[in-house]
Design a protein that fits this description.
Blueprint: E1 3-20, E2 25-38, E3 43-48, H1 61-78, H2 84-89, H3 98-116, H4 120-123, E4 130-132, E5 135-137, H5 143-155, E6 161-164, H6 171-180, E7 186-189, H7 198-204, E8 215-216, H8 224-233, E9 238-240, H9 247-256, E10 261-264, H10 272-284, E11 289-291, H11 298-307, E12 331-332, E13 337-338, E14 341-343, E15 353-354, H12 356-362, E16 365-370
Parallel strand pairs: 5-6, 6-7, 7-8, 8-9, 9-10, 10-11
Antiparallel strand pairs: 1-2, 1-16, 2-3, 4-14, 12-15, 13-14
The chain binds 2-succinylbenzoate and magnesium ion.
Length: 373
């Protein structure tokens, strides 16, 4: 297969409810849609879901645009490939920039599965027809406002509640939610906001009493030994997110017992190929996985639903319906959840159409490069 045309469409969507993590607050997102057109005139779509600012990861929307334009687009237009992994090997020497690569890999997987006439989920080896979704709730101004959000999402039927925590917003909101809902699947995510000194480890041990399913990424991404020390002292499983951007990182996590659950974020791992390999490796070590989100628009969300259909994704994924985030999405129909469960589409590829007209009218930036330009 060859790619004859590559387009990047940068799109902004406002969030229906602004979102605050330990590092920053956001009320709209700018993601880049990658459209690869093949020699049969078919288009495959992927999404670069990098945050605009370098607080979750080193990439930003602007670095993604630069790396895509300068390094990925020319390689993709020259490649002859038959599987997504072959196309990805053309950018194998480029270090980092996982979110950018993931957008291109996603478009390659969409094209590949359309060619095979198969849904993306089945092409990846998924077998589930429905995936269970959980929600991730940001830091709210007050505990009462948080409790209102929890009530709303539980009544929508979501299967798990994840709370963002940070120093100063941890034991109190966790205790409040746990005492209001003694039985729900509850977990916390610190996005690396804590230091891994002894006092903090002792402090975080108090979270054990809340019977959380996991504590996600308490320490900075490279602090594998800190996470391992915490895991030794906690009953609650530690889950790694930001720390694991490659299979090597996953090997390190397993070797050091630095986490007992893995959040597989397709973008963070450089795309669906590595995400699937991480699923296989984790599953072989009896590590449960779930799919984390980056507030993806529909294209990335559909890929998250597809990967969540693999058998090792035994915990609810961050694949809530689009309407939890956005009043309108870039795909038709949008991803919808019913009673907290998303049906895996059975149409070929990602199984949704991109609303091209809306994208063309609303994009902030557009790059259009054809072969031999
Ligand atoms: O750590 O999972 C995270 C959003 C932005 C940055 C980091 C994270 C998140 C989320 C989003 O939790 C969850 C979702 O997309 O539903
Ligand atoms: Mg996380």
């Amino acid at each position: 297969m060859t790619i004859t045309r590559v387009q990047l469409h940068e799109v902004r969507l406002p969030l229906v409810h602004s979102f605050q993590t330990s590092s920053h607050r956001k009320s709209s997102l700018d993601h880049i849609l990658v459209e690869l057109t093949d020699d049969d005139g078919r288009s495959g779509w992927g999404e670069i879901a990098s945050p605009a600012d370098p607080y979750y990861c080193a990439e930003t929307t602007d670095t993604a645009w630069l790396i895509a334009q300068r390094y990925l687009v020319p390689r993709v237009l020259e490649a002859h490939w038959s599987t997504p992994a072959e196309l990805e090997s053309t950018w194998g020497k480029i270090r980092g920039h996982e979110f950018t690569k993931a957008g291109f890999a996603g478009a390659a997987w969409d094209l590949f599965s359309q060619r095979e006439g198969m849904p993306l989920a089945a092409t990846l080896g998924g077998s589930r027809h429905e995936v269970r979704a959980g929600v991730s709730l940001g830091i709210e101004p007050t505990v009462d406002e948080l409790l209102a959000q929890v009530a709303k999402q539980l009544s929508a039927g979501y299967h798990r509640i994840k709370l963002k925590i940070a120093p100063g917003w941890d034991l109190e909101p966790v205790r409040a939610v746990r005492s209001a809902y003694p039985e729900i699947d509850l977990h916390v995510d610190a996005n690396g906001a804590y230091s891994s000194d002894e006092d903090t480890v002792a402090y975080l041990r108090q979270l054990d009493e809340a019977r959380l399913t996991m504590i996600e990424q308490p320490f900075t991404p490279r602090d594998f030994t800190g996470h391992a020390r915490l895991q030794q002292r906690l009953d609650t499983p530690v889950c790694l997110d930001e720390s694991v951007v490659s299979l090597d990182d996953l090997e390190t996590m397993i070797a050091l017992d630095a986490g007992r659950i893995l959040n597989i974020k397709v973008s963070r791992m450089g795309g669906l190929t590595t995400a699937k390999a991480a699923h296989d490796l984790a599953t072989a070590h009896d590590i449960p996985v779930w799919c984390g989100g980056m507030h993806e628009f529909g294209v990335g969300r559909a890929a998250n639903v597809a990967i969540s259909s693999l058998p090792g994704f035994t915990l609810p994924s961050d694949v809530s319906g689009s309407d939890k985030y956005y009043a309108r999405d870039v795909i038709v129909p949008p991803v919808t959840a019913h009673a907290g469960t998303v049906t895996v589409p059975d149409a070929p590829g990602i199984g949704h159409e991109v609303d091209r007209e809306w994208v063309a009218q609303n994009r902030l930036r557009h790059l259009d490069t054809a072969q031999h330009d």
